[in-house]
Amino acid sequence: MIVTTKKLFEAAYGKYAIGAYNINNLEQAMGLFQGNIDSQAPFIIQISKGSRSYTNKLMLEGIIRAADEVFPESIFAVHLDHGDEATCMDCIKSGFYSSVMIDASSEPYEKNIETTKRVVDAAHAKGIVVEAELGQLGGVEEHVNVSEDNAKLTNPDQAKDFVERSGCDSLAVAIGTSHGAFKFQGSQSLHFDVLSQIQKNLPGFPLVMHGSSSVPQEEVERINAAGGKLLGAKGVDASQFRQAAQLGVTKINIDTDGRLVWTRVHREYFLEHPEGFDLRAPGKIFMAEYAKFIAQKNDYLGSAGHLEEVRKLVS
């Protein structure tokens, strides 16, 4: 069942965070849905600008529609991740997405508000909710590439003004996370003091944490043992998710970790089976491993076990 992120946030606020997982293909979709059913968790399926053009946006949308039929007990939102204005408008027009993110965080403050408000007006007219971003995360994710020198924490004093003037439904905040597999180096850490102040200025308003993959060291070590060279990769401590949820974070984005699981499975499989050429063999392993990973991540988020409770709220 496809619902809006707004419905999910109302159920989760202050108690747990909803996992927002990026997918690019059939195997990720199958593992994602199965993992959320296994852990009885509502979730957000994210489609990025890059994944929409990986093959064709209609292919990925078709996979999600099919998964909705294969797993009719699932409850999830379909969300555009890191969209520019043109992509947001295209998704709003399509009628498939229940939520879009407009990321104008690289623009000056006033222009960010203006751009976000145009998207909000168009989305709300069709019953679609909007996530915006204030502040800038460092790191690299598809077309988003921000050096750590240019990363900026969200200004808590601006947050309330931004939300009121833009009309957005949730706000992605920069509190020290970053995109990609190399998140924490040097003095980087999560700034719960900043997050706490943002929540005080926006009580009850859903906040979003991007760049939140944990980059499990076991995955990194196994990838490297199978021929990879991910040296120094480090992510967010998943044990901190609950603390963030208590401070208003209702959506936590996870993309890199899913790519690491995919890479580990395929590197190990073809290292152990150099004669192999059937893509379905590692594909089956990945779907099972990704489902297990999703269920474990939902335990950290606190969303596991809440599916029936959410069903009653959205029915």
TrEMBL record:
GO terms for biological process: carbohydrate metabolic process. The keyword Zinc applies. GO terms for molecular function: aldehyde-lyase activity; zinc ion binding. Dihydroxyacetone phosphate binds at G180, G211, S212, S213, N253, I254, D255, T256. Zn(2+) 2 binds at D103, E133. The keyword Zinc applies. Zn(2+) 1 binds at H82, H179, H210. Its cofactor is Zn(2+). This is Fructose-bisphosphate aldolase. It comes from Pelolinea submarina.
